[in-house]
Amino acid sequence: MAVRVRIPSPLQKLTNNQSEVTAHGKNVKEIFSDLEVQYPGIKNRLYDESGNLRRFINIYINDEDIRFLKNEESELKDGDSISIIPAIAGGGCVILHRRTDLQI
Amino acid sequence: MSFFTEEQIYRYSRHIILPEVGGKGQKKLMEARVLLLGAGGLGSPAAIYLAAAGIGTIGIIDFDIVDMSNLQRQILHGVNDIGRLKAESAHDTIKSLNPDVKVELYKERLTSENIISIFKGYDIVVDGCDNFPTRYLVNDACIMTDKTNVHGSIFRFDGQVTVFKPKEGPCYRCLYPEPPPAGLVPSCQEAGVLGVLPGIIGTLQAVEVIKLILGIGKPLIGRLLLYNSLDTDFRQVKLRRDINCPVCGDNPTIKGLINYEEFCGVGRH
Ligand SMILES: [Zn+2]
Fold first, then answer.
1. Per-residue model confidence as pLDDT tens digits over A41-79
2. B179/A56 touch (CB, cutoff 8 Å), yes or no
3. A93 → closest Cβ in B157, B191, B238
4. CA dist A44 to A35, A40, A51, B45, Å?
């Protein structure tokens, strides 16, 4: 299954500055494994040390939050679009960056 | 005897002529009480448009001082305001635009101690604050005082807007049960933000406030609007109430305000 994955700006450094990439898999878990093969390091940003998706990042298939589907087991159809949406706090703050990424 | 002066009928004529607003709607706006959390990037455009629309009372809570680096986006303030309290500068800008508006200032930090009594005096809260502890504090206080929270946030080139209305839709904790660990959160100064971005997001917040007061259209409840300025992309995703949410779920475990700095793993700074 080929799906489009929207990459939030804090992670675009890992995807060669692309805001949208294509990945293959029949469910969300497989898509993220495929992403990790294509863009090493990305999984680390999405999962915590115990291997759970970080709770300040939400994953949507089209416009549905996977927590209200079958989480990472949520199945995909050709042409679906996945969005990775982190919590942002700003008047201008965010997450998913490491402080070192921001040093100029 | 008319509710409006002749000058007001003229000032608000482009509203009054809209069947969806009319004199009745304009009166609702003039009787409304809206609280802005912050007179910064998001609060600036929201305050200006809400004042222009004739919102009766605008509360502003901000203890910060205007700095030159704010002027890239915080359009309530000008060069002559540098060094002044943002709340006072905001007051003057609003009054010069529309003297009808009553402006109530809180020149203090929002805390677990003062938030409930401040929120009680308003109909709608506009959240444009800039850190996670305050976001969770505001969320929980809105649930506890039954206030609608018009939420906006920005980061670099991205913005998010939604409306959290207790009992009718999800809350911030349903969306993000936990804040990111403090080490992953750069400050606004470190990350940067496109100056126009809060203009878009804060203005969208103002639109939602006005719709809620007038009771027209479809408020942004249960939907998160995402804007990316680089791709010129507006999208929406669905938000659902989490029945296990610790504040608005079926069996809430958080029934009073907690220590939010600790919850977000940050010390006071
Ligand atoms: Zn909730």
1. 999 899 988 999 998 899 999 999 999 999 999 999 999
2. yes
3. B191
4. 11, 9, 9, 37
pLDDT for A97: 37
- For residue B154, tell me if it sits in a domain: yes
Tokens of residue A64, six digits: 């549905």
Distances (CA, A) of B113 to A55, A97, B116: 28, 32, 7
Residues 128-157 (B) with a CB less than 8 A from some CB of A: 128-132, 135, 153-157
**B202: in domain:** yes
B223 falls within a domain: yes
State how far the Cα of B68 lies from the Cα of B72, in Å rounded to an integer.
8
Q: Which of A37-51, A80-94, B146-160 has the lowest mean pLDDT?
A: A80-94
B69: domain CATH number is 3.40.50.720
CATH homologous superfamily of A2-86 equals: Beta-grasp domain (3.10.20.30)
Interface test with A, best of B136, B155, B245, B269 (most A CBs within 10 A): B155
Look at residues B37, B57, B82, B103 and name the one whose alpha carbon lies nearest to residue B213: B57
Q: For residue B42, what pLDDT is reported?
A: 95
* Identity at B192, one-letter amino acid code: G
Hey, is the C-beta of A8 within 8 angstroms of any chain B C-beta? yes
Whether B25 is in a domain gets the answer no
Domain that holds residue B206: 32-268
Counting the structural domains of chain B, the total is: 1
Q: Is A52 on the interface with B (CB under 8 A)?
A: no
Q: Helix or strand or coil: residue B220?
A: coil
The whole model's pTM is what?
0.92
The residues whose Cβ lies within 5 A of ligand 1, an ion, are B 171, 173-174, 245, 248
Q: How many CB pairs under 8 A join A and B?
A: 118
DSSP A18: -
- Would an 8 Å CB–CB cutoff place A50 in contact with chain B? no
Least Cα separation, residue B15 to chain A (angstroms): 30
